[in-house]
Amino acid sequence: MADVYDRHYAHDRGRVYYDHICDMALEDLPRDGRLLDLGCGTGLFMTRYLASGGTAAGLDISRGMIARARQRCNGCEVAVGTAEQIPYRDGTFDAVASILAFSYLQKPEAMLRESFRVLKPGGTIAVCTLGRNLLTALVPVIYRIGEKVHIRRIGMADFGEHYYRDGEIAALFAAIGFEDIRVRRCSFAHRDLHDPVFSLARKVEPFVEERIPQLAYNICVSAKKPD
Ligand SMILES: C[S@@+](CC[C@H](N)C(=O)[O-])C[C@H]1O[C@@H](n2cnc3c(N)ncnc32)[C@H](O)[C@@H]1O
Fold first, then answer.
1. Residue whose CA is closest, atom 1 of ligand 1?
2. Which is it for strands 55-60 and 77-80: parallel, antiparallel or unpaired?
3. To the nearest 10°, the Cα dihedral for 175, 177, 180, 183?
């Protein structure tokens, strides 16, 4: 998937869509700290974090993704592994991020518990993932119908991803002991929309996120490990 993934997010609408999610995550993270990116994929977020002045390490379950991340992020420590069992000592990082990966985890509680462990006291976590709303609630149904009638799949593929409600994801963070939990909705313009609909959706995106967040389909959560 590494090639497909980079093609989706490196150019044009995909890049605009992806940058917007990254900007929201970066807003809540310390700029010059040591970051761990869980489910780092091809390293797209780590390069943005490096540009903001910090250092970054990445972990991903896919060898192909990690090979690409290694090429892209010269100087980053990257490794194959699961976010549910992090191979670092307690209190190693100032920040943990996970961009569009949390929804694919089979044990999200384990990822949060491990993130809490490897964060320094006062460290910050930012997770952006798929949110549940009226439209995304229909995605699994559409996948199933698409497979039955043999039409092209929607998006890249069906990975059995989970779409989170605001309260549901906040409760997961709170149960681990995180504090200052902030949940925001993100993204109204999707890269699969064609122009001029994409441009129009981008224009109204700030209004949607602020005033009608139930129409935005990604969810960004940030929180702190207590001092
Ligand atoms: C949609 S991609 C996002 C990649 C990257 N975070 C980005 O923003 O470009 C989801 C990533 O999560 C990774 N992933 C899925 N389950 C994982 C797990 N249990 N531990 C670590 N990575 C995982 C996948 O291999 C994939 O690279």
1. 100
2. parallel
3. -30
User: Would the CB of 62 count as within 6 Å of ligand 1?
Assistant: yes
pTM, full prediction: 0.91
pLDDT at 142: 67
Q: What is the rounded CA–CA span in Å between residue 86 and residue 89?
A: 8
Ligand 1 atom nearest the C-alpha of 82 is 20
**Exposure b/e, 175-211, CB count within 10 A at least 16 = b:** ebebeebebbbbbbbbbebeeeebeebbeebeebbee
Q: Is the CB of 65 under 6 A from ligand 1?
A: yes
What's the pLDDT at 154?
47
Q: Are 179 and 208 in contact (CB under 8 A)?
A: no
Owner of token pair 């993130």: 115
Cα(196) to centroid of ligand 1, in Å? Answer: 31
Residue of 40, 42, 186 best suited for mutating to test ligand 1, as the one with most atoms within 8 Å of CB: 40
Nearest-CA residue for atom 10 of ligand 1 = 101
CATH of region 2-224: 3.40.50.150
pLDDT (0 to 100) of residue 146: 66
Residue of minimum CA distance from atom 15 in ligand 1: 104
Give the separation between CA 40 and CA 97, rounded to whole angstroms.
9
Residue 177 has a pLDDT of 98
| Consecutive 10-residue averages of pLDDT for the chain (227 residues) | 82 91 96 96 96 95 96 93 98 98 97 98 98 76 68 58 95 98 94 88 94 93 97
Indicate whether residue 82 lines ligand 1 (CB < 6 A).
Answer: yes
